[in-house]
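Name: NAD(P)-dependent dehydrogenase, short-chain alcohol dehydrogenase family
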Amino acid sequence: MRLRDKVIIVTGSTMGIGKAIARKAVAEGAKVIIHGLEEDLGLAVVQELGGENAKLHIEEISVDGATQRLVDLAINSWGHLDAIVNNAALVVPSNISTTDKAFLNRVLEVNTIAPFQLIQAALPFLTKSHGAVLNIGSVNAWSGEPNLLAYSISKGALMTMTRNLGDALIRENGVKVNQLNPGWVLTEKEIERKREHGLADTWYEDLPALYAPAGRILWPEEIAAAAIYWLSDESGPISGQVIDLEQYPMIGRNAPKDTSTIPNK
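Structure predicted for NAD(P)-dependent dehydrogenase, short-chain alcohol dehydrogenase family:
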């Protein structure tokens, strides 16, 4: 087991990528803190994983003290902390006309500032365990789509923070900090967003090759499989790295000429 006896906080893990990472971590021998806003879904995840392997904390991640309470729960439950996964995020459409200061601040609070605060709260314990931070970003960090402005800004900031702390913390604390940038992933929320756009629940079964060269988009379990390497000792001292997980190059690819057929990712 690649994560035997490691204690890991996974934010935003009541569904989607976070849930997939928590499942895979427990399968590899870890104990996990499940976090999110949906108590019914969180309880179901804990029941699936077993109370001896998972504890639940329901709270908005940007609330004052929330990140410290997550760390306290991990320490009170198992006595140590080996890794954190900053996965919780607001994925909300906006552009230059619809993004005001309050909206941008809100997205940054959840997607960038809260991950920073969780790293701060966890750092004393991660230093003891020579642990790991894994930030879950997005390929939108590189520039993003016109209607994902605030979200893209927040993920770009997260990426810079990963590279900065990845250098500083491995030197000063022995803690590695890395980031995964997933592309288009078939999560429950993504299905819900497309339903709100008027698409059928089967929209993902017939996507243009432009968006899905392999014939489908990514599954949460595929992101989780990649996450285990960076949370485990297998990745050694590698730190400050950002890894894109998409089925086509994010830099240097020709821009699509017609984006009207598919709503935003």
